[in-house]
Amino acid sequence: MYAIIRDGGRQHKVAEGDHIAIDRLGLDAGEEIEFPDVLLLSDDEKVSVGTPTVEGAKVLGEILGATSDRKLYAVQYRRRKNSRRRVGHRQKYTEVLIKRIVAPT
Length: 105
Description:
It contains no helices and ten strands. The protein is mostly beta strands. Strands 2-1-5-6 form a four-stranded antiparallel sheet, with no helix packed on it. It has a four-stranded antiparallel sheet with strand order 3-10-7-4, with no helix packed on it. It has a two-stranded antiparallel sheet with strand order 8-9. Strand 5 (38-42) and strand 6 (47-49) form a beta hairpin. The protein is elongated, with a radius of gyration of 19 Å. It starts with a strand and ends with a strand.
């Protein structure tokens, strides 16, 4: 069984036992999290597509901790002006372990 969920403007394909990285949340490790926006739900024989979400379906997970992505650099350069600027950005993530996918009854 797998589901496609929406979180923070992004969509993730998840199954039980998966680890996903979502945008940083203010939650501690070990806390439970619920994703109510399930866009698609599929098991072996049936696929449920939401309009826009599947009613009664949700995905439950557990926070594993906070991580960071590698540092990206944006460089601005203006030719013949002796003007250079280098700015770094490092995206923050929250690691989530998908515990259970709850289908509507």
